[in-house]
Amino acid sequence: MPESLFLVILAALGALMILGLGLIAFRLFGDQGLICPPMPAAYRGPSTDGTWCRGTLRFTEDRLTLRGSGGLSVGPWLRGHLDLGIASAVPGEEAEELGRADLIQVPVTYGTSSFELAMGEGHYTALRAWVEAVPPGWRSARVA
Hints:
Layout: H1 2-29, E1 39-44, E2 53-59, E3 63-68, E4 73-78, E5 82-84, E6 88-89, H2 92-98, E7 104-110, E8 113-119, H3 121-132
Antiparallel strand pairs: 1-2, 1-8, 2-3, 3-4, 5-7, 6-7, 7-8
């Protein structure tokens, strides 16, 4: 009986170790292909019931994702289908809730769905430039 208990505990520890190594590998290699370092942002969409969810924006050559707390992600959204609306300042009580007074919110349309992103001005400028730039692989004959 004690031997079988020892083997069960040993197997559980081995499984936890493998899971931990897998999560570390995911964190290390999951950010490959990023255009710039992840940016802090907040997301508000139909699934959030009007509340802001904090996370980090990550964009590669053709995709934008928002990784929230606990590794849960929203997206990915393909670059060519994103349409950024007119940016405005985040209202006072919402800015307090997010912990910063200088945030900009921008409505985003992706196909038939829409959501909002809130971020600092520099991060908004980087996002807008990335969305409006010609996607990689497009030839000049396709543009204009």
